[in-house]
Each structure stands twice: as structure tokens, then as C-alpha cells.
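Sequence, please.
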């Protein structure tokens, strides 16, 4: 049985004061959700204070990005060891916004994932096709290649630490969600790729769905066999909304 993982990706939103107020509102609302992993990925600027506030709570802090190098002349970048210092449990890599706006490719993403694993941080590796790719029926080719490239070099013994986020680009921030069946088809395909690459370990890898997840659709998405969690942008910015997602129907409390 895979433990569900519900993660908030705040992107470039919230000040420290807003992040702390959010945590204080959210914590009592998710107190009963003991059988899920709850993750918040704030901007880097909020990580130190939010992480301190969440210490000892069931909510785990995450980063939205990392540089694979240990240190050096990389202006604007943050190294894995710096995230360890902030008690980051997870880090998002390969988000479609980083792929499309900052030109990040699978090689770079796999180096990030490997560096995180070496530091005991679980990578959340994002994959997903654009609308044009889906309409041209290239979804499996695109997602398969992203998985192969982004997970290159990962030892099968470590791969259960990795979380995959399937985020169809056409569903991110658009209000347009994949139907539960469309998402399940993609997740089942992803799991078959993981089986090809990593054998039985594929059964323990959690695959999140992301792309306009909200309180209204989380239950039907989470009822699908291969959907093990959600990576949530817009609907994670308000505590009551994210709490409803964490407390999805079917979760054991
Ligand atoms: P969204 O973003 O929930 O606002 O669509 C999801 C994501 O980009 O991770």
C-alpha cells in the first residue's frame, strides 16, 4: 500500500508572514490526517522560518528547486546541503515551468534528483505533455522519454524514495483538469515504465497527479488505482482549500 502524498507548490507566492499564518491555520485542520504525507513547498525565502514552525508537526517542508552542485560560483542557485540544513524532506525537480521558462532538460533534472538522494532528500520529479503533444498522440512517447532521462542513473535500491508528479502542462493553472480516467491511464503508463526501468520497486513509487487539483475534484482523482497523491498549485494557497485536499474522501484518519 502506497502512502498518499499531498503537496502544496506555492511557486513564487507568499511572504514569511503569510507562510507562518498559513501553517498556523492549516495545522489544526489536518490534525486527523495521520495516514498521509503532507508537504509544503514555499519559496526559498520562507523555508527557514516555515521549517522551524513545522518542526514536530505532521507537515514536511520542501523546496521547489535545487542545483546539483555542492557549492561554488553559481549565482542565484541553492545547493542540496543547504536544503538539508533547512530540514527539507522533499524537493520538486523538473516542474514544467522550469522546463519551459528556464530551459531545464532531463539531464540536468536527473543530476538534481541524484544529488538530492545523496543528501537524503526525496525528489518529486515532474513529467507531463503539452496540449499539442497530447493532440498529436505523443503523450506516452514524451512522458516515457522524460521519465527515462530524468531518472537516469538512479539505483533501483533508492528509487522508492522518488515521487513522480504527472502534470499535463495543459492542466496546470488552467482550471482544466484531466478526467480521473485520463489521469489514471497516464499513471498506469508511468508505472509500466517504472517497472521496465526498476522492476518490483515500481510498486512502491508514489505517483502524484498535478494540474488544477482542487477540493471539487480531489476525491475522484484519488480514487484511481495508480494516483497516489496530488501536487497542488493554485488551490494550495488557501489553508481551508488545501486542508480539504489533504482530507480527501477515502483517506483513513
Ligand atoms: P495548479 O498547479 O494546481 O495551479 O494547476 C500545479 C503545479 O504546477 O504543480
Amino acid at each position: 500500500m502506497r502512502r498518499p502524498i499531498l503537496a502544496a507548490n506555492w511557486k513564487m507566492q507568499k511572504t514569511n508572514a503569510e507562510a507562518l499564518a498559513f501553517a498556523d491555520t492549516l495545522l489544526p485542520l489536518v490534525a486527523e490526517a495521520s495516514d498521509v504525507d503532507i508537504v509544503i513547498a514555499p519559496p526559498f525565502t520562507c523555508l527557514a522560518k516555515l521549517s522551524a514552525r513545522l518542526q514536530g508537526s505532521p507537515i514536511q517542508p520542501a523546496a521547489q528547486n535545487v542545483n546539483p552542485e555542492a557549492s561554488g560560483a553559481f549565482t542565484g542557485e541553492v545547493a542540496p546541503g543547504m536544503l538539508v540544513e533547512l530540514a527539507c524532506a522533499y524537493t520538486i525537480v523538473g516542474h514544467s515551468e522550469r522546463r519551459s521558462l528556464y530551459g531545464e532538460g532531463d539531464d540536468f533534472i536527473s543530476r538534481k534528483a541524484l544529488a538530492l538522494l545523496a543528501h537524503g532528500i526525496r525528489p518529486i520529479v515532474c513529467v507531463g505533455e503539452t496540449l499539442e503533444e497530447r493532440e498529436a498522440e505523443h503523450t506516452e512517447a514524451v512522458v516515457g522519454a522524460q521519465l527515462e532521462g530524468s531518472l537516469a542513473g538512479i539505483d533501483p535500491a533508492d528509487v522508492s524514495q522518488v515521487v513522480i508528479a504527472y502534470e499535463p502542462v495543459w492542466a496546470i493553472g488552467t482550471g482544466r483538469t484531466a478526467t480521473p480516467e485520463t489521469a489514471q491511464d497516464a499513471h498506469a503508463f508511468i508505472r509500466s515504465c517504472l517497472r521496465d526501468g526498476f522492476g518490483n520497486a515500481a510498486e512502491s513509487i508514489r505517483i502524484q497527479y498535478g494540474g488544477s487539483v482542487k477540493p471539487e475534484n480531489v476525491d475522484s482523482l484519488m480514487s484511481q488505482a495508480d494516483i497516489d497523491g496530488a501536487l497542488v498549485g493554485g488551490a494550495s494557497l488557501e489553508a481551508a482549500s488545501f486542508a480539504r485536499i489533504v482530507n480527501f474522501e477515502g483517506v483513513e484518519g
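Strands lie at 5-9, 37-41, 59-63, 90-93, 122-127, 163-166, 206-210, 229-232.
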